[in-house]
User: What shape does this take?
Amino acid sequence: MDAQSPAPVPPPGCPAHNSGGQVPLHGPEFAADPQAYYEYLRHYGPTAPVELAPGVEATLVTDYAAALQLLQDSGAFRKDARRWRAFNEGKVAPDSPVVPLLAYRPNCMFSDGAEHLRLRQAVTDSMARVDSRRLSQRTEQVSNYLIDQFSTRGSADLLGDYAKQLPLFVFNELFGCPADIGDRVLFGISGMFDGVNAEKAAEVLFQAVGELVALKRSKPGEDVASWLMQHEARLTDEEMVHQLALLLAAGTEPLRNLIGNTLHRLLSHDAYAHRGGLIDEAIDDTLWENPPMSNFAPHYPAADMEFAGQKLQAGELVLVSFAAANTGPALAAARQAGSNRAHLAWSAGPHACPSKEPARQITVTAVENLLNQLPDVELAVPEDSLAWRPGPFNRALVALPARFTPVKPVRRPSRSDDRTEAPAREEQSGAARASERGGLWSQFLTWLAR
Ligand code: HEM
Assistant: This one.
């Protein structure tokens, strides 16, 4: 901390009051007003001591320039979580709620150097084969299906009934999941993120993804899972399972929150109501001011070092606050002046999100279709009564209650392009006919086959 600056004042209700220790980012106070916390954390300088969960300490980079320096220096800052000293020394409880997102897995997010390049190339090349027209059509079908489930009611929770479900369904489509496997993928990934029986949910997810890999080995289709498998990186079955699970986890949770936070912005800020191109603008403003992944990019110094005026030890956990960096004074001024300096909502450097185009396209389609189908949709509760999920990493609404004039469920999927689909499509319809009472994915496939 700068010796000249006044003593920082913790935000109201912050348990860091009088503690002088790590600032906790896991309580309801942080969820209620993260910007007050970022303002407070900036008083420490470019980095600040934080607590991610009880007993899990980290250094958080809040300054834009320091964040870029860290994200681009992959020699000094490593991603392999097996370097995490506190975890290796048993100082972090294995059942801590942050461990599932921080502990090592053999995927591109946790690898460095040549291994990272190899795995990431396989992921980016396979995602790049997704046809953008088909992605929009699939997203619109899923969107129509989900809207059909609540359109006659005149009210819905746009988070739980829509934004949360849509990415999961779209990923099942992208991966070419047949009914039975798709149901378990949906169950597993939702359970993991909701923290409901998370261990069992993870087991179900990995089992289902393992079965998907076996299925695609014997019967490849025109889908991301098959393209990943056919890639020249020649992924093993274990690597396949972990890259697919990463795509699901890294894709669905932030995507749900980008859709949710954009809808929240559109429904709560009158400023968007009468302007053309409003959806793109609302997405950009959300990425700047309320990024779905607010604090992440866990890194570990390769050696003891000095960074941004702070001593760091090898293997210490260092994260980047994308939200604080985006809204800090330096970047806010640059943004106002019309500078094209990018926000950090997708991170930066070699581990930046490789899927921002498809993520944006899914978000635009999901939001646009909802506003087209329910043109008078509005918030059903005062904006200041909305609650945000606690947790240090994601900026995520608990619910987004809305109301609208009821609409008859008249929409059917467009069938025009279904004939060109992967072989999995026939299996899907067959499985869907056989499992009318199956899980969520089976029900969608049944609806699609009607
Ligand atoms: C189609 C949906 C998405 C997919 C498939 C996807 C996939 C991925 C993957 C595989 C990585 C790891 C890259 C690496 O380590 O080399 C990643 C990183 C990241 N993604 Fe995405 N993503 C999606 C949507 C989003 C959204 C909506 C956001 C929020 C705006 C987001 C923000 C990020 C960030 C901040 C990182 C860096 C995390 C870190 O460094 O630890 N992603 N994404």
In short: The pocket of protoporphyrin IX containing FE is lined by residues 108-109, 120, 123, 246-247, 250-251, 254-255, 258, 287, 291-293, 296-297, 322, 345-347, 351, 353-355, 358-359 (CB under 6 Å). The domain at 23-176+221-411 is CATH 1.10.630.10 (Cytochrome p450).
